[in-house]
Specification:
5 helices, 2 strands, about 110 residues, mainly alpha, elongated
Length: about 110
């Protein structure tokens, strides 16, 4: 099935490109299946689709990787130029909580 995220595994929101992420990291299909909670039929179908459409899937995957990188760079730049948020004003309640937290840390801190 194809969605706005590309070809997806029937009965899931997992795309073939999610599978490709793990394949590019050299995960074996059995581990991918278990990690993503897929059935053997689902992983077999995904792997068959990837093999049958290897060039198209790889090109689309690379395009998505490029797009993701561009989006990441955009948001890094956007956030780099944003002013730092104003500090949250201290209240008696927050001060009391912070004191309790510090007390707890000192009791549970390993030497």
């Amino acid at each position: 099935m194809r969605s706005d995220r590309g070809p997806t595994i029937a009965g899931t929101r997992i795309s073939v490109y999610d599978i490709m992420d793990y394949l590019h990291e050299e995960w074996p299909p059995k581990l991918i299946r278990d990690w993503l909670g897929l059935t053997q039929v689902q992983i077999d179908s995904a792997m068959a689709y990837i093999r049958a459409n290897k060039d198209q899937v790889e090109k689309e995957y690379q395009d998505l990787e490029k797009q993701s990188e561009e989006i990441r760079r955009y948001w890094e730049e956007y956030n780099r130029n944003r002013p730092a948020p104003e500090p949250v004003p201290d209240t008696p309640r927050r001060a009391a909580f912070r004191a309790k937290l510090e007390e707890w840390k000192s009791r549970h801190q390993k030497n």
